[in-house]
Amino acid sequence: MAKEILTRHLRNRVHHRAVRAGVQVDDSVVERLCLYVHLLMRWNSRINLTGLDDNDVGIDRLIVEPLLVSQFLTPQGSLVDIGSGGGSPAIPLKIAVPELALRMVEPKTRKAAFLREAVRQLGLTKTAVETARYQQLMARLELHEAHDVMTVRAVSIEPKALRVLQTFLVPGGKMLLFRSSDGDDISTDLEAPLVWEAKIPLLEGLRSCLVVLRKLS
Predict the structure, then answer these.
(1) Domain ranges, residue 119
(2) In a domain? residue 38
């Protein structure tokens, strides 16, 4: 009974925070997002996957931000997430856009093991986990220009890194960078083929934004 109450409370919280941010979410999506959060909490007690705060801040950062960004994704597209860690934003994005093909890149073995378990438990299709640094994937030519969208959160991005990362995007593809509200760590003076496209506010309470870069044809 206690577990059912906790689950219902989490479900209501996720739904409330999403609606508050202006996102309409189906009950089935909320249900799977809650399953992901429960799984994350269980694993987080054994290994340090992410700073999962048991409050609205944690829900906003891990769940609501990706839900906001999911509105910019094409359902039949492909997404590569760099430094996936505990699975956010990649897994909530996949839950919100189930037809999306997803590749998560995580170099740490134990975190990659969690991602694979989450994929299994949540029944995510068209989803792959790469236990590698993104630099190592450069040797796999089939991954070059193979993704429509790239997401990056909590990973330091330098100009040299951007030059490498754009290799995995198709011409016209977009890089979505989850940053603080100023986004000042991403220079607007970019090297071709990347160009600055937009900075989109996400959640005022978190002072967060999405920096969007586009790869020219």
Answers:
(1) 64-215
(2) no
